[in-house]
Write a structure and sequence with these properties.
This protein is of the alpha/beta class. The protein is 42% helix and 15% strand. The strands form four sheets. A seven-stranded mixed beta sheet has the order 2-8-7-6-5-3-4, with helices on both faces.
């Protein structure tokens, strides 16, 4: 008899529906290739060229040799061998975040990761040492962080967002409630700029207040910033990390949206001092390195070199290098908002937010927007979206859906909204009034 493994004998997180959500969505995209997909939050592919990979690799090799003075033998070893656990392009990343985000960081505090997702795993594993430690998450929340927390057995408590992202008063209240229950609110995770899934942003004036509340509550802050460059309107406020005077903020970055998702390169800025029992001091980055050495050993040297070449090519200024992408995403987002306004004007029970940038819009509908509805939408109307219930850990979002317009053409956006209207009409006729 072949071996069978009962699911209830595997780790309990594997039975959590949240861990299956993205798989279901990916399978739906594959099964309905003709559907217009508002589902994935992926960058546009129009500027991708295979020849650029070798060009960026050459740019990095030239920089190492001509600017940093590395020998050919050393460069070869760096590219072909196992590498430094915390990464080889840490210095280039430090220069780039200084230019783009006004974040001044010691290169030794930079951990180069296998995408931002590994960064989340490393940070949560390092910070959460006790069963009484609780992770506060801005809610609704990106499934990547909630999935990692579930895999690690970390308790989460949602902090509901307001119209303008996380609010200091709500954070203060939730932190106090957790502490009053006998547990410790250890860290807060949030995406202050154009959050996934809501597209909301924390106003600049509110950011210092959030840091003040975090300090009073003895909370560490995990700031995730994949979308910050992609503003549609207004001026970009400073990141929490740029405002971080007492090293309370651990910053997670990614090159998936600004450079190349296929490279799978991200980073963590972790400059918090760590002191052992003998009084010896290290940086949190060094402690994350210990975990990384047991998870991925090191981030692909070739991928790092390609991203490093892109940083060199941009003059260590990704904000400027992404000017065309910023314009494209702003136009797509504006078009999506205009189409929703034109097609759903004054429609009772249907509303949506208007983010100032990023990839996402949330639509509220008068019916259950679950997996079964998504199946009908894709099969019968040729349009895909993401149920917002995926992003709530407290059962919310059941009548909301997320639309992503980043990877679509204007023609697809227009056609997709027309199909969405037909789907919504059909669902309304199915729903008892």
């Amino acid at each position: 008899m072949s071996t069978r493994l009962p699911l209830n004998e595997l780790h309990r997180s594997l039975a959590d529906p949240a861990l299956s959500a993205m798989t279901f969505l990916n399978e739906a995209v594959e099964r309905f290739p003709g559907a217009v997909s508002f589902a994935p939050g992926r960058p546009a592919e129009g500027e991708f060229r295979t020849a650029d990979i070798t060009r960026y690799l050459s740019a990095y090799v030239s920089y190492r040799a001509e600017v940093e003075g590395a020998s050919e033998a050393r460069i070869t070893a760096e590219l072909f061998q196992y590498g430094r656990t915390n990464g080889q392009i840490h210095g280039l990343i430090a220069r780039t975040v200084a230019n783009d985000e006004d974040i001044v960081i010691d290169p030794e505090a930079v951990v180069v990761t296998v995408g931002a997702q590994e960064g989340m795993l490393l940070v949560l594993r390092a910070l959460f040492a006790d069963a009484a430690d609780v992770l506060l998450v801005a809610s609704p929340c990106y499934v990547g962080i909630t999935g990692v927390a579930r895999l690690l057995g970390i308790e989460m408590v949602p902090v509901p967002e307001g119209p303008n992202g996380l609010e200091p008063a709500v954070l203060r209240q939730v932190s106090a409630q957790v502490r009053a229950s006998g547990k410790r609110p250890r860290a807060l995770y949030l995406v202050p700029d154009f959050a996934n899934p809501t597209g909301s942003s924390v106003p600049g004036a509110t950011r210092r207040q959030l840091l003040d509340v975090a300090a009073a509550a003895d909370l560490l802050v995990i700031e995730d910033n994949p979308y910050g460059l992609f503003r549609r309107v207004g001026e970009s406020p400073l990141t929490l990390k740029a405002l971080d005077a007492d090293r309370r903020v651990i910053y997670i970055g990614s090159f998936a949206k600004t450079c190349m998702p296929g490279a799978r390169v991200g980073y963590v800025l972790a400059d918090q001092p760590v002191t052992d029992a003998l009084g010896r001091r290290t940086l949190l980055a060094g402690e994350l390195s210990k975990i990384k050495s047991m998870v991925t050993v090191n981030t692909s040297a070739v991928s790092q070199a390609v991203i490093g070449g892109m940083l060199v090519d941009s003059g260590f200024r990704l904000r400027e290098a992404n000017t065309d992408a910023v314009k494209l995403y702003a136009q797509n987002l504006q078009l999506l908002l205009d189409e929703l306004s034109d097609r759903f004007a004054d429609r009772a029970g249907i509303s949506w937010n208007r983010p100032d940038g990023g990839f996402f819009v949330v639509v509220t509908v008068p019916f259950l927007a679950d997996d079964a509805a998504l199946e009908r939408s894709a099969r019968d109307f040729g349009v895909l979206w993401t149920p917002m219930s995926y992003f709530h850990i407290d059962g919310g979002g059941r009548r909301q859906l997320r639309l992503s317009c980043s990877a679509l053409t204007p023609e697809d956006i227009r056609a997709g909204v027309v199909r969405l209207v037909a789907f919504v009409n059909s669902e309304e006729s199915r729903t008892p009034q």
